[in-house]
Amino acid sequence: MLDEYQVEEFENNIHYAMEYHLPIRFSLHNEGNPEELHGYCVYIHPITKELRIQKKDSSFEKIKFDEVISVTVED
Length: 75
Hints:
This protein has a five-stranded antiparallel beta sheet, with helices on one face. It is built from one helix and five strands; from the N terminus they run αβββββ. The chain is of the alpha+beta class. A hairpin with a 5-residue loop joins strand 2 (33-44) and strand 3.
């Protein structure tokens, strides 16, 4: 479980990366197996909190904010 501070920090990092079109590295909790996802966040659904990530091969992947363990902006 993430505390409010971590959630706010993740949201700020995601919005910053979207504003300046910077790549992001997400660490995800996927059924007990940590997973990394690299790409650009292109959309955040305001109600479901789903993120649409454009990967480097130009494909898209949707992730739920609840799955995020960490967010790193790659400047």
